[in-house]
């Protein structure tokens, strides 16, 4: 179902639903929030929080024992003292009390699915309002790059744009309703990438949306063909953005990267500003960072979020497996939105070295220093102190490249870890078309990630 006509219908409908006057008016309101100071933002948060908690108590039996008799000013305290931290497992274990109407979705509520990198996927009911607002939040981020409706943009994500069997251009679809060039990331191959680069060059869009992995693959091909695109802003989202990806994307594809952090559960949203800082959007949700015991911390911890806008299924103090830390101080961009360190990835995707400590993905990138002729890579933990480095090589890849890679790991990353290099013709994406560069496949680790801490 990827014919031209299907695409036309799909994008006309999408434009009608999402890019209407309602969204425009939401966007204008959201843009005004950027001018508020911390105190005004605190008050706004208290009002939203009060509304969400009242809805949760009224609609979800899980919270029916909590008294709704508290004021806007008391909402934050009530949240911290009376509402427990919940996780995906809590939702899966309590469908009758944590889902509205005992788990029976109403026809007008949309169902969002988590991509489920590990374990069971999760369904979240979403209100129409939250769907429209989500779009407005994304668009507000684009305005940070000077983008306005009507400007062209390119999109290189997981969308099935044209059939996989297609061997001749176009490997894209021009969505005239949004001036959007949708590129097929499945056609980022030696045979077809040239046509994609040519098309991007002729459009020269002011912004491009991509996954870090798809932007990185495109940049890899640009480097191979000694070409360069200079897209002013590349918006990345949906996967962790690793330093080696950032470096090559900036060298070959875009002048600036604007990363975005969000998730299907919609309990936190952070956007990178013109000055490179990741800002939590305080009008999107209420975000906490907690340690293993669920206590709020200024150190690294898990992201916990409470929805403001999805009253169809109010998620309260929902803990994600993403880890980050608050960053104190003020940003030069002038916004009072709080800052966080970049989110380096999910706990279940972290791998450990020979001393059983987690190895940062930034350190892991040293393994690839000076190693050439790799189209795609993945580092997997397959046992205690045992890693498998999977590579999709270009034809020029040699034993010398392979030895250099293993040498790098033992000299720059971990001297005692057992490394096996596996050459493959392709590395699979997840069902959502995303790619996980670091994976942990040891059963013990996955089980620990699944159980609440
Ligand atoms: Zn900023």
Number of structurally distinct domains: 3
CATH 2nd-level architecture of the largest domain? 3-Layer(aba) Sandwich
Average pLDDT number: 90
Low-pLDDT runs of 5+ residues are: 447-453
Q: What is the gyration radius calculated from CA atoms?
A: 23 Å
The CATH topology assignment of the largest domain is Rossmann fold
Largest sheet: 10 strands, mixed
Number of helices: 13
Give the distance, in angstroms, between the N- and C-terminal Cα atoms. Answer: 43 Å
**Helix percentage:** 25-40%
Q: How are strands sequenced across the largest beta sheet? A: 4-5-3-6-7-8-9-10-15-14
Report the top-level CATH class of the largest domain. Answer: Alpha Beta
Q: Strand share of the residues?
A: 15-25%
Description:
By secondary structure, the chain is an alpha/beta fold. 32% of the residues lie in helices and 22% in strands. The chain has helices at 4-18, 21-33, 38-59, 75-82, 88-93, 95-98, 128-143, 193-203, 212-224, 243-252, 361-364, 399-413, 443-450, and strands at 110-113, 123-126, 153-156, 172-175, 180-183, 207-210, 231-236, 254-261, 270-272, 278-280, 285-290, 301-307, 318-324, 326-327, 339-340, 351-352, 358-359, 374-383, 386-393, 418-423, 438-440. It starts with a helix and ends with a helix.
């Amino acid at each position: 179902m990827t014919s031209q006509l299907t695409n036309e219908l799909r994008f006309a409908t999408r434009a009608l639903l999402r890019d209407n006057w309602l969204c425009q008016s939401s966007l204008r309101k959201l843009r005004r929030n950027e001018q508020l100071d911390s105190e005004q933002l605190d008050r706004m948060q208290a009002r939203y929080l009060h509304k969400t908690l009242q809805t949760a108590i009224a609609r979800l039996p899980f919270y029916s024992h909590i008294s709704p008799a508290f004021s806007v000013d008391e909402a934050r305290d009530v949240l911290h003292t009376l509402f427990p931290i919940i996780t995906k497992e809590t939702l899966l274990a309590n469908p009758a009390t944590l889902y509205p109407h005992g788990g029976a979705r109403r026809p007008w509520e949309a169902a969002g699915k988590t991509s489920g990198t590990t374990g069971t996927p999760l369904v979240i009911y979403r209100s129409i309002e939250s769907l429209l607002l989500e779009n407005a939040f994304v668009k507000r981020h684009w305005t940070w790059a000077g983008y306005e409706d009507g400007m062209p943009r390119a999109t290189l994500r997981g969308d099935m744009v044209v059939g996989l069997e297609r061997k001749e251009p176009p490997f894209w679809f021009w969505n005239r309703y949004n001036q959007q060039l949708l590129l097929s990331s499945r056609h980022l191959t030696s045979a077809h990438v040239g046509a994609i680069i040519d098309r991007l060059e002729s459009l020269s869009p002011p912004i491009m949306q991509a996954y870090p992995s798809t932007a990185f693959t495109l940049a890899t091909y640009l480097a191979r063909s000694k070409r360069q695109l200079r897209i002013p802003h590349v918006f990345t989202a949906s996967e962790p953005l690793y330093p080696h990806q950032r470096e090559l994307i900036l060298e070959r594809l875009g002048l600036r990267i604007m990363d975005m952090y969000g998730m299907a559960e919609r309990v936190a949203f952070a956007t990178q500003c013109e000055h490179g800082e990741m800002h939590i959007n305080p009008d999107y949700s209420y975000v906490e960072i907690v340690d293993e015991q669920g206590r709020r911390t200024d150190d690294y911890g898990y992201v916990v979020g409470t929805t403001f806008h999805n009253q169809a299924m109010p998620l309260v103090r929902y803990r994600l497996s993403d880890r980050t830390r608050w960053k104190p101080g003020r940003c030069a961009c002038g916004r009072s939105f709080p800052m966080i360190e970049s989110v380096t990835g999910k706990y279940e995707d972290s791998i450990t070295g020979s001393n059983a400590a987690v190895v940062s993905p930034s350190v892991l990138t040293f393994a690839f220093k000076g190693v050439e002729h790799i189209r795609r890579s993945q580092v997997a933990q397959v046992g205690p102190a045992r890693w498998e480095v999977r590579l999709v090589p270009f034809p020029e890849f040699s034993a010398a490249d392979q030895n250099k890679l293993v040498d790098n790991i033992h000299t720059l990353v971990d001297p005692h870890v057992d490394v096996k290099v596996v050459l493959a013709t392709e590395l699979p994406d997840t069902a959502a078309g995303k790619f996980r560069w670091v994976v942990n496949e040891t059963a013990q680790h996955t089980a620990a990630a699944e159980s609440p801490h």
